[in-house]
Design a protein that fits this description.
The complex is a heterodimer of chains A (607) and B (280). Chain A has 607 residues and is an alpha/beta fold. Chain A contains 17 helices and 31 strands. Chain B is an alpha/beta fold. Helices cover 38% and strands 24% of the residues of chain B. Classes of the chains: A alpha/beta (607), B alpha/beta (280). At the A-B interface, α8 and α10 of A face α5 and α7 of B.
Chain lengths: 607, 280
């Protein structure tokens, strides 16, 4: 405590006011944050709208400021600094807490406003709309958080505190300028396991497995609603806006009352709602009118605007129809958004849209199209002008490749069997040493010599399975445990940073030269992955391994396309920068297509 | 006069396949059936034996009906040729080339288009029609030929095919019904839910509600598996060369399998027959 008082005094005396970009943690919360009070003069304020009590090592209660954003906002800092000057406060002065704090909080703290984006169908463009709105508001100087109560997805990320949440909310948080997405933003994650069963992850941790029926009959009316409430409440306490995202259609009248992803969540957060309709497939007006009119009156009243999304061709052709729909529904069409060509990680893999390849570049990267592929956003950084990414379903696709990626899967052993059945297994063995091959997570496990599942955890059938034998490793599924961790590391041979996260059940006994050395705090002694440099074989558990340039650079540097001409200069930009630039393009596109006056009215944005 | 029109909640909802299936169903019962789609917007066309150019979908539906394709089956074909240019083919022959925004004799085309319908009606027992896109595009409805236009001009009873794959199927059915103009809404009799995965009983309460709100009947639910079979797009896929005899035999064989699957899955095509009969 004494310490903090001293630091605060020194900081103010030194005039260290503003954003400390030289701090290695900057920004620890959001871009453009004010770091003047890295050490807070109000500590401990004990105001649970801002911080929280945590348990100390000896079981005592400690006040934690980890969640506090107000202290990093310019207006709050400016007010505090002016009070310090006005009252001639010295650090540690009791008036900080008795006088200044209550007045400042009264003046500057307000509960955020919730606005929810629902879609007439899945794939309507909800996630992207949330990201675009978030970036637009961020550029206006607001602090926003994304929220999706329930997300069914196989694309998850690990947060800085080790929680597992959907990839999309992480992307949206980035759009809003937030440094660390957290589990509040997606408190319920459903990870489909097979036909009708899902693993339910609650607040970032595995909770239980449910059948569809059980989920709606037991989980939702039981813990479900409360989970939604406490998490959205938390965000509303800390942010100016919580931009919520619905799931699927909000008008599924067969499960209407059990649906906590859409209008029930809007009710819990008392959110205004924007309906997004994808125009691309036609029928947009029917979908919009049906969605609105099938809702009960009290829900319908929340809908403040409709966005017609993904219009190809002349957007003005939609206007007469939009005008007629406004008359019918009495709800304004607040935006007609053209199809935007932005490069962002997508929940819907190109692969699942029936495409057999992406791009037209000279380097042919074959990605094994595992039937139960997971975390396919790992591949996004590979799409570039220099590559043709082929989703390999047959041995020929593999034999024709300049480089090969074996991605992650929900079911390593099942998909290994599939590779054997279709002949890809043999083709991969033929290609060993001829082109670089990278296995990620499940793909890495397959590259080992043996996969052992004595209890049938992975595939329901106990047994030992022969891997590709590229590495001498053995992977074992010995218990129903899952490793979820975020990693920072460097390439041992040659350097260069990578960042990523591990999410897997089987554990590997590694007998190879490791690929990475960890740089994550406290784990500097650990290594990860396997490499056989002379055979161009690489394996890692790290999802996102291609995001930073270093490993991608290494991978592509090994490509030698004998029959396709000389190697071009590959673009090896940091994928995060690519994403950030595209988020700006996305927001620009929306700003152009939105009626900004109507938009500001919905959000209560003052000029 | 016996005819029925398959409408879709969106493009790609499965109209083409459903119409083909119904053609096949009737053909197997020995009915003299013929497909028809007033207008098609497509780059993929088929050239009939007598040199007429029509949309691929109708060619396949003709084979499903056990007959050879003719120009009447798709009397208006719009072929975009890039840069805002478009060729309009009428009854299989080039009619006019236009650029975007250019006016042309819509009335004449309409007359010829529906004239083809009348001829098919007089020559065959049942005409199975396919709509185009969604019938209720508020910005396009006034000039529509293949959906509301045909319903209005020839009082054709209709069935709506709704794709459940992306969700929002109840909204789509309700919204389509609601936005149909008053004078033709009564011609819409029922709906089919296409591409369903999972336990169909989960839909019961929703279907009952839609039936109650609209007076439409649910004709059946088609399981997702059927997607493996030719769809509007894949019919003209890179693999099959047009007019290849094998392609069309393969198609009919697949269609027979699909028909069995659909019937096993609970689609009762006799319900469509009843709709047709009661309106005949
Ligand atoms: S507030 Fe965070 S970013 Fe700013 S100086 Fe302190 S630790 Fe660094
Ligand atoms: S919660 Fe915020 S205001 Fe309160 S003591 Fe911590 S940093 Fe200061």
């Amino acid at each position: 405590m004494k310490n903090i008082v001293k630091v605060v005094r020194d900081e103010i005396a030194a005039g260290n006011v503003g954003c400390k970009t030289d701090c290695p943690y900057n920004p620890c919360h959001f871009s453009g944050q004010n770091c003047t009070f890295c050490y807070c003069p109000y500590y401990p304020c004990n105001d649970e709208r801002l911080g929280k009590f945590v348990e100390g090592r000896r079981g005592q209660k400690i006040w934690s400021c980890e969640d506090c954003l107000l202290i990093h906002r310019d207006f709050f800092v400016e007010h505090t600094v002016s009070k310090i000057k006005e009252l001639g406060l010295e650090a540690g002065d009791p008036r900080f807490l008795t006088e200044v704090f209550p007045e400042a909080v009264e003046k500057f703290w307000h509960r955020g406003k919730a606005v929810m984006v629902v879609g007439a169908t899945s794939d309507a463009g909800k996630s992207i709309t949330v990201a675009a709105i978030g970036r637009i508001l961020k550029r206006m100087g607001y602090l926003c958080a994304p929220f999706k109560s329930q997300n069914m997805s196989l694309n998850s990320r690990v947060t800085s505190d080790g929680a597992e949440i959907a990839m999309v909310q992480v992307l949206q948080a980035q759009a809003m300028g937030l440094k660390n997405a957290d589990a509040h933003m997606n408190p319920i994650l459903l990870k489909p396991m097979g036909n009708t069963r899902s693993q339910v992850v609650v607040e970032g941790k595995p909770f239980a497995d449910y059948e569809v029926g059980g989920y709606y009959d037991e989980f939702v009316p039981g813990p479900g609603k409360e989970i939604v409430k406490r998490n959205v409440d938390f965000l509303l306490n800390h942010y100016d806006y919580v931009i919520m995202e619905g799931a699927g259609s909000p008008a599924e009248i067969n499960i209407y009352d059990k649906d906590i992803a859409n209008m029930r969540a809007a009710e819990i957060a008392d959110a205004d709602v924007i309906l997004v309709v994808n125009v691309e497939w036609g029928g947009a007006f029917a979908y919009a009118v049906g969605t609105v009119e099938l809702m009960p009156e009290e829900d319908r009243r929340r809908i403040k605007g409709i966005i017609l999304n993904n219009v190809r061709g002349d957007v003005n052709l939609m206007r007469p129809g939009a005008d007629r729909m406004e008359e019918i529904l009495g709800i304004p069409v607040i935006g007609i958004i053209p199809h935007l060509d932005v490069r962002l990680p997508s929940e819907d893999s190109e692969m699942f849209r029936g495409r057999s390849s992406v791009g037209n570049g000279p380097v042919h990267v074959a990605v094994v199209k595992l039937p139960r592929i997971a975390n396919f956003t790992d591949l996004d950084p590979l799409y570039s002008d220099d590559t043709t990414v082929v989703f390999a379903e047959s041995p020929e696709d593999i034999l024709d490749a300049d480089a090969i990626v074996i991605p992650g899967t929900k079911n390593t052993i099942g998909d290994l069997q599939w590779m054997k059945d279709v002949g890809i297994y043999d083709a991969l063995r033929q290609m060993k040493g001829k082109v670089p091959i990278v296995g990620i997570c499940g793909g890495y496990q397959m590259m080992g010599k043996l996969l052992s599942d004595p209890q049938g955890i992975e595939n329901g059938i106990p047994g030992d399975y022969e891997g590709l034998g590229f590495f001498d490793n053995t992977s074992t599924w010995s218990s129903y445990t899952k490793r979820v961790v975020r990693d920072r590391a460097v390439i041992i041979d040659g350097g260069g940073e990578v960042e990523g996260y591990e999410i897997h059940m089987g554990m590997s006994d590694v007998k190879e030269t490791p690929l990475f050395r960890m740089t994550s705090f406290g784990r500097e002694k650990e290594t990860e992955g396997s490499v056989r440099k002379d055979e161009m074989l690489y394996g890692t558990y790290l999802h996102g391994v291609f995001d930073r340039p270093a490993f991608r650079d290494l991978f592509f540097s090994l490509v030698s396309r004998k029959d396709r001409g000389t190697a071009p200069e590959m673009s090896v930009e940091d994928y995060n920068d690519v994403v950030d630039r595209n988020l700006d393009l996305l927001a620009d596109g929306f700003e152009k297509g939105l009626d900004m006056d109507a938009f500001k009215k919905i959000f209560g944005v003052k000029e | 006069m016996r005819s029925v029109l398959f409408l879709g909640t969106a493009s790609g909802a499965g109209k083409t396949t459903l119409a083909a299936l119904y053609c096949r169903y009737l053909r197997k019962k020995g009915v003299d059936v013929v497909p028809y789609k007033t207008s098609n917007l497509s780059l993929n066309s088929y050239v009939t034996e007598d040199g007429k150019e029509i949309g691929m979908g109708q060619a396949f539906q003709a084979w499903a009906s056990g007959i050879e394709p003719t120009g009447d089956m798709n009397p208006v074909l719009l072929k975009p040729s890039g840069n805002g240019r478009m060729q309009i083919v009428v009854r299989g022959e080039p009619f006019i080339d236009i650029v975007r925004g250019q006016e042309y004799d819509r009335e004449k085309i309409k007359e010829l288009g529906y004239g083809s319908f009348d001829r098919l009606v007089s020559e065959h027992e049942t005409v199975v029609c396919e709509g185009s896109g969604s019938p209720v595009e508020l910005n396009l409805m006034d000039t529509d030929l293949a959906n509301v236009g045909l319903m209005r001009a020839r009082k054709v009873p209709s069935v709506l095919v709704a794709d459940i794959e992306r969700g929002g199927v109840f909204a789509a059915v309700y919204g389509t019904w609601k936005l149909l103009p008053d004078d033709v809404r009564g011609l819409l009799k029922g709906f089919i839910i296409n591409r369903f995965r999972g336990d169909a009983s989960l839909l019961d309460s929703g279907i009952a509600r839609i039936e109650e709100l609209t007076g439409l009947k649910c004709i059946g639910i088609i399981p997702y598996e059927t997607l493996k079979f030719p769809e509007e797009d894949s019919m003209s896929s890179k693999k099959g060369s047009i007019g290849d005899g094998n392609l069309h035999e393969e198609f009919v064989k697949n269609l027979d399998r699909l028909l069995e699957l659909a019937e096993e899955g609970g689609v009762d095509f006799s319900k469509i027959e009843k709709i047709v009969d009661s309106s005949a």
